[in-house]
Amino acid sequence: MVAKLKTTYQEKITETLYKSLECKNRHEVPKLVKIQINRGLGLAAQNTAILKKSIEEFRLITGQQPVVTKSKKSVAGFKIRDEMALGITVTLRGDKMYSFLDRFINLALPRSRDFQGLNPKGFDKYGNYTIGLN
């Protein structure tokens, strides 16, 4: 099943962007490549119950098995050891990416408390957009 947002983007939005940005080539039009979702658990990741609960939540939200991220080196000041679990991450591409983005925009964001819209300053110089949620 192709996501509704993907077909809308390919049929309508791409053509509008192509004309408004005055692109010379269709490949110059901005597009989504991937969505990366991560959660930093910190020292709470040492508790296996919290880690398993977070993994199950990510699995339900994204439909994919998350990867446990581990520390690269020891930092005594933060009580972190080498290869210690610190968080989880999932990378979405293709149809799963578009279906997640559609649900995020149409269901999750409007339901969040005191939602005033997304910050347009969330873009970096490479075109990546970052959103932080509590």
Description:
It contains 3 helices and 3 strands, in the order αβαββα. It has a 3-stranded antiparallel beta sheet. The two termini are 31 Å apart. Helix content is 37%, strand content 13%. It is of the alpha+beta class and 134 residues long. The chain has a domain at 35-92: 50s Ribosomal Protein L5, Chain: A (2-Layer Sandwich).
Characteristic key phrases:
single chain; 3 helices; 50s Ribosomal Protein L5, Chain: A; 134 residues; three-stranded antiparallel beta sheet; alpha+beta
| Biggest sheet strand line-up | 1-3-2
Q: State the CATH superfamily name of the domain at 35-92.
A: Ribosomal protein L5
- Helix-residue proportion: 25-40%
N-to-C CA distance:
31 Å
Strand-pairing-aware structural class: alpha+beta
Assembly annotation: single chain
| Low-pLDDT stretches | none
Global shape: elongated
Q: Do you know the CATH architecture of the domain at 35-92? A: 2-Layer Sandwich
Instruction: Assign the CATH topology of the domain at 35-92.
Output: 50s Ribosomal Protein L5, Chain: A
Task: Tally the beta strands.
Answer: 3
Q: Enumerate how many helices there are, as a single number.
A: 3
CATH class of the domain at 35-92: Alpha Beta
